[in-house]
Amino acid sequence: MLLLGYAIAVVAATSVHNPWWLAAGLLLVAALAGRQVPTIGWRALRAVLFFSLVISIGYAAGALFGQAVSLDYLILVNIRVYLLIFLTFTLAAKIDILRALSFSRNLTYLVTLVLSQIIPFRRLFEDLRLAAESRRLRRLRLRERYLQSAAAAVHLFDRAEHDAREIALAMRSRGFFQPDAPDNAPGD
């Protein structure tokens, strides 16, 4: 039931073009989050901050090239994005996704596959973070942090490529990616 409500809320949030209604929706979701509002709100803000900054700065930069810039539109977009992320994090905190999708075997299988990819990468990221912390004696400068983050990102991409290749080979060996048998093969 919560999943259905979430789907309706996402459609509503993307259909409404009035910032006041979106702000009211944000208050409603905050009320649903209950005591977890500060935690979920902070997580949502961290998740959306970089995206909103880039979009807002890019949109405002359009004014330098003579394009009309609407402050109302910028507010609308930022509230909508924050509402959608806040709503998603609230839902994730409230439900067990595997149990919620237990009505469909295919959806459960799909979510299990996704989780089986997320959990190892989350653990690998945490291992990289802890390894980096254990090897430094002082707080890194911004340039060093960027270099360290870039190295970690390269390692994660390499790992993702390797895993994808291994999964594709395993699926091929089990008969996936085979051309379909012709429907009117001779002798049928």
Would you kindly provide a written description of the structure presented here, covering whatever features stand out?
The protein is 77% helix and 0% strand. It is built from seven helices and no strands. The protein is an all-alpha fold. The longest helix has 32 residues, at 142-173. Helix 1 runs antiparallel to helix 4 and helix 6 (105-134) packs antiparallel against helix 7 (142-173).
Radius of gyration: 23 Å
- Name the average pLDDT: 85
Q: For the record, give the distance between the C-alpha atoms at the N and C termini, rounded to a whole number.
A: 48 Å
Assembly context of the chains? single chain
Which spans have pLDDT < 50 for at least 5 consecutive residues?
Answer: none
Instruction: Please trace the helix and strand order, writing H or E for each element.
Output: HHHHHHH
- Main beta sheet, described? none
**Helicity level:** over 70%
Q: Report the principal-axis shape.
A: globular
Q: Quick one: how many beta strands?
A: 0
Proportion in β-strands: under 5%
Provide a count of the helices: 7
Query: Helix/strand/pairing class, anyone?
Result: mainly alpha
Which tags fit this structure?
188 residues; mainly alpha; 77% helix
Secondary-structure topology with pairs:
Elements: H1 2-15, H2 19-33, H3 37-61, H4 71-94, H5 97-100, H6 105-134, H7 142-173
